[in-house]
Design goal:
7-stranded mixed β-sheet; 2,3-Dihydroxybiphenyl 1,2-Dioxygenase, domain 1; alpha+beta; Immunoglobulin-like; 274 residues; 2 domains; 37% strand; 15 strands
Length: 274
């Protein structure tokens, strides 16, 4: 396995990176406390905007040396907040996987050619102490994908998104490396995500693996996910675990954050499901 820290924070032209995952919760502070126990620092509570208007959601983020984990909560009555509440009613946990490319327009064209119907691009903005964080986000038309909010983004302001002061030593030593996705038909899901990302899925001993230019997704059935994580599936389709490469550990460690398993593994060794 190539050390994930050898890859840059943002992709070059033609590359697809696993950018971040999103955990939808009612109580952000509770999750922040649990992450703090792992020496992971979260950014301050920030309300989001879509195209210059309140999104009805807010977040705190664990910014890593590569990628990040976003923790989101609904804060007002908007369509986006209603979608989030509906997801939380299914289960509190991971409902968002975001990939990143260098050019949102090129990516939108590629998705259209693969038969994916997109909403109008969202120009997402949030104010930080380091300036305005700016992204273009590509989301699917409803109903989207059964796994949750699966999307692309293009970053324009990496210094505002990954400022040094939020890359505390514990965060800087980590990198988002993988996601474990459970469902009734892993082969179908892997094929669909392969079309979405323009990458090839391959069969493994436990399911199907989709390797990106940085990071990977693994698709398994629910009994396999329960065995790998030690958790009980909260839903027939379930984003079950996050893999985080960690320079501070020499063996794989698992921490359960509600219905999400956080797997920390040595930076030069893949998670056990690979």
């Amino acid at each position: 396995m190539t050390n994930i820290f050898d890859a840059p924070q943002l992709p070059a032209s033609g590359q697809v990176f696993l950018d971040h995952v999103g955990c939808f919760v009612r109580d952000i502070d509770k999750v922040a406390e649990a992450m703090g126990g792992l020496d992971i620092t979260l950014t301050p509570f920030t309300e989001q905007q879509n195209n210059g208007k309140p999104a009805g959601t807010a977040n705190r983020c664990a910014m890593f040396g590569r990628g990040y984990i976003e923790v989101l909560t609904p804060v007002s009555d908007t369509p986006l907040a209603a979608q989030m509440n509906s997801a939380i009613d299914r289960y509190e946990g991971l409902h968002l996987i975001c990939f990143t490319t260098s050019d949102a327009n090129v990516t939108a064209g590629a998705l259209d050619s693969q038969g994916f119907s997109l909403q109008s691009p969202v120009e997402l903005r949030r104010q930080t102490a380091d300036g305005e964080a700016a992204f273009t986000v590509l989301r699917l038309q409803p109903p989207g994908m059964p796994e949750g909010r699966i999307q692309f983004c293009t970053h324009y302001t990496p210094d505002a998104v990954w400022p040094d002061r939020y890359l505390a030593e514990g965060n800087r030593a980590r990198a988002l490396s993988g996601v474990l996705v459970a469902g009734p038909d892993p082969r179908e899901a892997a094929g669909r995500f392969a079309r979405f990302t323009g990458r090839e899925a391959t069969e493994t001993a436990v399911g199907w693996n989709l390797k990106l230019d940085r990071g990977a997704l693994t698709f398994v059935n629910v009994p396999t996910a329960e065995k790998l994580t030690g958790l009980t599936a909260p839903d027939p389709v379930w984003i079950a675990a996050i893999a985080v490469a960690d320079r501070t550990v020499d063996t794989e460690l698992r921490t359960d954050l509600g219905p999400v398993s956080l797997i920390r593994h040595p930076a030069d060794t893949p998670p056990s499901w690979l």
